Fold these 2 entries.
Entry 1:
Amino acid sequence: MKAFLLGCVAALVIAIAGMEILNRVQEPVAQAFATSAVRL
């Protein structure tokens, strides 16, 4: 039971860390698709 709970906590920590990293790395859609042919 202890290993299962530790695995759940580890998965939660990894998911939260991944979310934070992606929020900082990704650029807004207005910047990503900013070309002369695209109107947002």
Entry 2:
Amino acid sequence: MTAAILIKKLKAHSLTIATAESCTGGLIAAAITSVSGASDVFHEGYITYANDVKIRLLGVPADIIRSYGAVSEQCARAMAEGARKRSGADIAIAVTGIAGPAGGTKMKPVGTVFIGIAGKHTREYRHHFRGTRSEIRTKTVQYALRYAAAAVV
């Protein structure tokens, strides 16, 4: 799924989108805004790498981060919902994960990624990508764009 296809679908349904990114550090927003015409559908993007920024900018409850961690289904959901609410966009993509090569644990190894999509409904997806840091981040972008396009209805 390319960003161009996502933009085309968003335009066809008169919808807008925002992003909230941790492990991808803005790559999803960059992919979307690299397409001519993105300004018709892209509202804004948040790079919320630090936990306190997730809380401050997106309204992620501190209890979620304390209880489940920043790399969790619950955090991805809260990030997506917060980005959607704060931006006023129709759909929001959120990603949080461990791109490596360090930072993994037995419970959440390197490559663990959660993607949240908030639209009419909110969905979260868990993945375990293999590869280098760059490959994990690239796969995260690809899947996030695919899930966002599927949410356009």
